[in-house]
Amino acid sequence: MEDELIAQINLYSKKSKAEGLNDSEKQVQQELRKEYLRRIRQSLKSELDKIDIV
């Protein structure tokens, strides 16, 4: 699932550089990026929650 998300983000990024994106594609790109960041933050929070300070 993570690989698919990254692949979609990369696809929109390449298309943006090559020919530009229309408004709906820009919106999808932003949503994909937000979802990716949400997952990264969730993963980081999960890892930090596992740490015990002694």
From TrEMBL:
Keywords: Cytoplasm. InterPro entries: DUF896. It comes from the Bacteria. This is DUF896 domain-containing protein. It comes from Criibacterium bergeronii.
